[in-house]
Amino acid sequence: MSRAWNFSAGPAALPMDVLQRAQAELLDWNGARASVMEVSHRGKAFMEMAARAESDLRELLAVPSDYKVLFLQGGATQHFAQVPMNLAADGQRADYIVNGHWGEKAVAEGAFYADTRVAASSKADGYASIPARAGWDLDPKAAYVHVTTNETIHGVEMHGIPGVGNVPLVADMSSDILSHPLDVSKFGLIYAGAQKNIGPSGLVVMIVREGLLERRPRPLPKIFRYAEHAAADSMLNTPNTWGWYLAGLTFQWLKQQGGLAEMGRRNQAKADLLYAAIDDSGGYYRNRVVPAARSRMNVIFNLHDPALEPVFVAGAAEAGLLALKGHRALGGIRASLYNAVPIDAVRALRDFMAGFAKAHG
Ligand SMILES: *Cc1c(COP(=O)(O)O)cnc(C)c1O
Known about the structure:
This protein is an alpha/beta fold. The protein has helices spanning about 15-25, 45-60, 75-85, 100-110, 225-230, 240-255, 260-280, 310-320, 345-360; strands at about 5, 65-70, 95-100, 115-120, 145-150, 150, 155, 170, 190-195, 205-210, 285, 300-305, 320, 335. Strands 2-10-9-8-5-3-4 form a 7-stranded mixed sheet. β6 (about 150) and β7 (about 155) form a beta hairpin. The structure holds pyridoxal-5'-phosphate. Pyridoxal-5'-phosphate binds near residues 75, 76, 175 and 193.
């Protein structure tokens, strides 16, 4: 049995080295004569592994010392609600820049705890762009400004982080965290579901400025308070031990590969290759996103004849290119090019696209 090239949007491909190491260590982790899933999270070995994962992540992203790194649960979706729970008073404004599906969800879920307001949106063009900074209608008294740096379904990405003054910037980075170097100090809070670029689903990585944890806008059960999780080193209750472990292996792998500068170069090269295959196809393949907002992580495209799209997806799967069907909200094709997807996979896709266009011209 051989593995296929996997373009899944999430849960997504993991690095081969990480999977092989996890496999090798599964039955006897770290001399424990048990797997990492079967030992106490409060034991010395697990605590050391957890601390190393955190310090590797801090090194990769050069996280400043006045930020906490949290390993949480609930998916990004839970934090759409939990962020305003922790940062905004009842009825207080929170500004949202919406450039796709996930931003819309964040606004709707956040509305249970704050006056979530769409301060800028690219809905009018079907989320084919990022709203220009000049048009953002920001409230200087807002609890925070929320952005989605990469929209996984609509295939748009913010290239460069716009300034928002003194209001803390909150970012859902579920599908682009660790894909290129990042200046964490520009953000108040970053959160990411792990299943795109870090590890398995069920784990959420959060990076939050300590000052923000002092906000106490309402009484909350401990389990919903980020400050409690931070005080307990993310072990307020039993964490997702398997997810934390795999995330740690991914961080080690990223360091071995040359860190985020190298990942940024590779991801740019992969995206350039695929967008060129689309743009140079004479209209056979089409991407509707404005070039300046094209995502390096999720490349969406259509065929000139939509009736051919299911044929394309099925033929690609047969050729060992998996999970290319676009999200059901948009249709079309989507190729996700996260860190674990090597450039050889993108070359194989490009060659398949050229062959398909010839065969179904
Ligand atoms: C996948 C994704 C989500 C949803 O993540 P869950 O873990 O399913 O809650 C949210 N935001 C973005 C940008 C995503 O890519």
